[in-house]
Amino acid sequence: MKFTALAAMMAAVTVLGLLIDGHDCKIVQFIFGDSLSDVGNNKRLSRSLAQASLPWYGIDMGNGLPNGRFTNGRTVADIIGDNMGLPRPPAVLDPSLTEDMILEKGVNYASGGGGILNETGGYFIQKLSLYRQIDLFQGTQTLIKSKIGANAAEKFFQDARYVVALGSNDFINNYLMPLYRDSWSYNDQTFIEYLMGTLERQLKSIVRSFLTRVLRAFEQLLHSLGARQLIVFGLGPMGCIPLQRVLSTSNGCQERSNKLALSFNKAGNKLMEDLSSKLPNATYRFGDAYDVVNDVITNPIQYGFTNADSPCCSFGIIRPALTCVPASVLCSDRSKYFFWDEYHPSDSANELIAKELIKKFGLSRVDETDGPSPAPAFAPSPEG
């Protein structure tokens, strides 16, 4: 659960429509990430403490009931996919998931509390780390190979585009917490190097002290699994999320956390450039929305928000409440609040972030095939 995923927001794979052994394969998404992209995986983790299964999560989407998303409406991945004409992929732990659904819609592996590192978010009891998400992706590959054959499946996955949104939990729910060994085993620079190194290894399979090691692991893993066109989303100013503010003495942004996000983004961008230059037939890009999110938080009125420092869903004066619960009080106009709860952006904030990333990457709609486009979220109601 975390905000840094804001920019560090979200993993999505788009598979270009093509005919594979008689299967009309549509453009789909495979999403890797944390609570900013989770659409229901943690709902199936019965012992997980990172949950969005209670009202008022999902109030402004579909039937208004909790759907596994850690916000009041859509995720950034939802909005980007909708704008590109892509179907919304189901959670990998959805018991109704089939091979045909994967070919039709793709898969979402994101899990609240998950991080690049296995040890991140351990106190949530259950969550899917990026390593575990990639293990599940390997299982998906096995299913598709059985369905359409090895050669067709290889082309199917190599033609896919992958988007990954992770990283904030590795700081907020790991490095910045003294109960974790990583908090005293590394300094700011070496932790980032550790992350980058891990991520690089992971990417090659589907930073040079702590942060470098993380990114390198990620690279190796995804590339060996067939990922060729991939977008990694950077982190936003995670020191400005309500949880970080309320834990500070001044109720202001925690600058150390923001500096870590900037360092992560710089290292992540360099890693993607390096990978694209040395991995065959690979295009890896890094999406950084830090500046626009920081500007919104600094000048919310200019962007149509009235509040960018506290959660819309809160438990009165009891802060931090951490999650939104049925007894929580909602703000009067959800569309005017940048943050939904102590960690996560609102639907309106996610839309702003998604549009910035769409513009930055020059993303456009894909050619639509048969079937309707996914229904948009309902507009946030001004009623609490």
Structural class: alpha/beta
Q: List SSEs in N-to-C order.
A: EEEEHHEHHEHHHHEHHEHEEEEH
Q: Total number of helical segments?
A: 12
Helix content: 25-40%
Content of β-strand: 5-15%
Average the pLDDT over all residues and give the rounded result: 83
How many distinct folded domains? 1
Alpha carbon gyration radius: 19 Å
Tally of strands:
12
Family: Belongs to the 'GDSL' lipolytic enzyme family.
Region (Disordered): 365-384
Keywords: Hydrolase, Lipid degradation, Lipid metabolism, Signal
Organism: Malus domestica
Question: Can you describe what's shown?
Answer:
Belongs to the 'GDSL' lipolytic enzyme family. GO terms for molecular function: hydrolase activity, acting on ester bonds. The radius of gyration is 19 Å and the shape is globular. It has 384 residues and is of the alpha/beta class. It contains twelve helices and twelve strands. Strands 1, 4, 5, 6, 7 and 8 form a six-stranded mixed beta sheet that branches. A two-stranded antiparallel ribbon has the order 2-3. A two-stranded parallel sheet has the order 9-12. α1 crosses α12 and α8 (212-224) runs parallel beside α10 (255-278).
